[in-house]
Amino acid sequence: MPNTPNRNAVALLASMVFAAVPGMASAQGIPGGSAGHKFVVKNSTGYTSASDLGKIGEVVCVKAGSDEELKIADHYDSLGTFYAVAVFGSDEDILAAFDEGRCEVVLVAQNSVSEFVGNLTAPNEHTVLAEIIE
Q1: Rounded to whole angstroms, how far apart are CA atoms 60 and 62?
Q2: Burial degree of 61 (CB within 10 A; 0-12, 13-18, 19+)
C-alpha cells in the first residue's frame, strides 16, 4: 500500500504555516485560516450595509472571548454607534439566540455564513451584509 499523507495532518500543517508567516494571507477552508467575517442581520432592522449598524441600538450576539467580539467592538467604534451585547458560550447558543430573536445582529466567519443561515428557522427573514470584516 502506498504511503499517503493524512489529510488532517496536512491541513494542520498548512494552518501552522499560515499562522507562522507574518503577513501571509491565509486560505479559506484551511483550519485556523481567516477568510474574513460577515454580518448577518434580521430583515426587520432594515440594514443593507455594515455602515448602517448601530442606528437602532441593536443587540449583537457574540461568543465570549472570541475574535468576533473584538471585531464587532472595533466596527461599532469606527462608526461611533451604540449596541448592546448578548454573550454566549458556544456557536450553537448564538445560533439559537439569534433564531429566537434575542439579538438582531451576529458576525459569522465568511466560510460558515451559508451553513449558519441555512440552520435558521426562517432563513429568508435574514440578510447577509456584503462587506467583509477583517
Answers
A1: 6
A2: buried
Strands 37-42, 59-63: pairing is unpaired
> What pLDDT, in 10s, does the model give residues 68-127?
999 999 999 999 999 999 999 999 999 999 999 999 999 999 999 999 999 999 999 999
Quick one: DSSP state of residue 106? E
3-state secondary structure 28-77: CCCCCCCCCEEEEEEHHHCCCCHHHCCCCCCEEEEECCCHHHHHHHHHHH
What's the full length of the chain, in residues? 134
